[in-house]
Amino acid sequence: MSEIRAGVTAPETTDYKKRTAFFISDGTGLTVEAIGHSLLAQFRNQQVEQVTLPYVDSDERLNQVLHRIERAASESGLQPIVISSIISDDIRRQLHQSSALMLDVFESYLAPLAALFGTDPAHTVGISHGIANDRRYTARIDAVHFAMDNDDGRRTREFESADIILVGVSRSGKTPTCLYLALQFGLRAANYPITEEDMDSTALPKILRPFQHKLFGLTIDPRRLMSIRQERRANSRYASPEQCEFEVRQVEQMLRRSQIPYLDATELSVEELATRLMSQAGIERKIS
Amino acid sequence: MSEIRAGVTAPETTDYKKRTAFFISDGTGLTVEAIGHSLLAQFRNQQVEQVTLPYVDSDERLNQVLHRIERAASESGLQPIVISSIISDDIRRQLHQSSALMLDVFESYLAPLAALFGTDPAHTVGISHGIANDRRYTARIDAVHFAMDNDDGRRTREFESADIILVGVSRSGKTPTCLYLALQFGLRAANYPITEEDMDSTALPKILRPFQHKLFGLTIDPRRLMSIRQERRANSRYASPEQCEFEVRQVEQMLRRSQIPYLDATELSVEELATRLMSQAGIERKIS
């Protein structure tokens, strides 16, 4: 059965000794999986095997899924959890026949929304992550290629058309944040690494000065930076405590001196960096 | 007030003539926004202004939000919708004082889960998109840099360590799909464009043959390809109907001849491409 699973075990060797939570969707499963993760994160003391089952949109697939749920129940002796977003009433009804605790987003929320709007839901599958329209697709792809081309100071002649330019030391998280901003929000995000050559003074590098209003800094705890750099070039000067400390201190002074807003990336995920910097810089998304 | 909004109007000029749906979270807002989009997609005939308000985790921020909701209500004369994921009971209770229809994921689902587990939820904010651990962070960043370095056939010497190698004509969606696979699932995804030089025969390019087992094809409707390429190089041979048709036909023959699985990218979003190809190729995620 096709599936996407956390962990590395092959599907056929799944071990149902623990309780299993199934994240089931008739689409990509991305949304319901995110819901599942945040709910289960509130019960950290529980050992729960998490399995995402996307594209459950046919009777055949549904039967595989039902079988899978019952196997998890009987092998563990623990009631499975189903967190789902299934648009079809029929498929949802059949899922309810399983022995799992079933929490379905559409089941919970379509009725109150329908009552508010005074109209029935469309029951159309796969709208949320589909290609909404050509304009959205184009903006997104354009932003991705922009981020690729304008990564790591590789090119600066397109800075004029950037929505935001991230600056910071090497390996402070600029690249993944730019790519996330492009993919998720359609933003044209460039980045420019502050390297040792730029650190003779704490003035902004010349090339960045015309774009000061769209600069945003990332800083990072020097020890964390060191550990990231060690993974890349172990025992190099680049990854030494002295070098990491020096670079971070210089860049922070540079950012403060030029009054460039910045975030500390040490404890933040790429999603948090992206959304927080948009809030802080007052940048609006290009796609939704 | 800091916020992330669909559309391009500046926050202060928000026009509340339409009904407003607020997606409110104490974290990034990404999950609740995805839920909101998929629910409202079932009511396409309704005009709804959609506003995401992330990081609502203090009384000050909450008061701004409450004010905002009431303004939307009074300016439109229509009851607003709040779709939220708020972990704090206290903030949730205060949100309930507003005049909005309130649908909260934690409110709906924590109680049945707590009953099942026989234990109270932790009420800890911001776990779901935070840096879970160093290993996860490192795997993700490593995958992103791998995708960058191994984009567009730029480098092939790392194909050995790729989890998957996407092949297809230029602008069939390979690059964004690889980046998404890296960011979302920590997969090392490379891509290789099949260019005209490779099309003298329908045999697999030599460089790809040792990696046949990890190749995955993307194909695309020639008219769609043409319109994407026109955006990039209008009126070029590259974007001509004949060229697009020729390339797509050749690549499809190549994929079939070498029995490489492939997907038609024409109608699929990046999320759909990524999750479907993982299902089809039986690839497991590296991070969850």
From TrEMBL, chains A, B:
Keywords: Kinase, Nucleotide-binding, Serine/threonine-protein kinase, Transferase. It catalyses: [pyruvate, water dikinase]-phosphate + phosphate + H(+) = [pyruvate, water dikinase] + diphosphate; [pyruvate, water dikinase] + ADP = [pyruvate, water dikinase]-phosphate + AMP + H(+). Transmembrane segments: none annotated. Its EC number is 2.7.11.33, 2.7.4.28. It holds the Pfam family Kinase-PPPase. One of its GO terms (molecular function) is kinase activity. It comes from the Bacteria. ADP binds at G168, V169, S170, R171, S172, G173, K174, T175. InterPro entries: Kinase-pyrophosphorylase, PSRP. Bifunctional serine/threonine kinase and phosphorylase involved in the regulation of the phosphoenolpyruvate synthase (PEPS) by catalyzing its phosphorylation/dephosphorylation. Belongs to the pyruvate, phosphate/water dikinase regulatory protein family. PSRP subfamily. This is Putative phosphoenolpyruvate synthase regulatory protein. It comes from Microbulbifer bruguierae.
